[in-house]
Write a structure and sequence with these properties.
The protein is mainly alpha-helical. Helix content is 74%, strand content 0%.
Length: 82
Amino acid sequence: MERQRGGCLLNGCVTLLVLALALVGYGWWWLATAPGRTEARAEDDVARAAASTRTQLSAAAAGGTLFETELDRVFRKGPDGG
């Protein structure tokens, strides 16, 4: 039976180095794609808010007239107008 050169120490070191490289690569990829994930989440939030506002405006205008108080309620304006 032949003995392998380097034995378990070398094979273990290579395994750990490959694992470390894979983890660094994954971390790099995850950081590089973070802006895209954040942008997609923001777009979903805006679309959801727009759909909710559209539904509230439709319900407020169901009587045929849309009063300023109804607009304030839908857009959640405070008493100071801000």
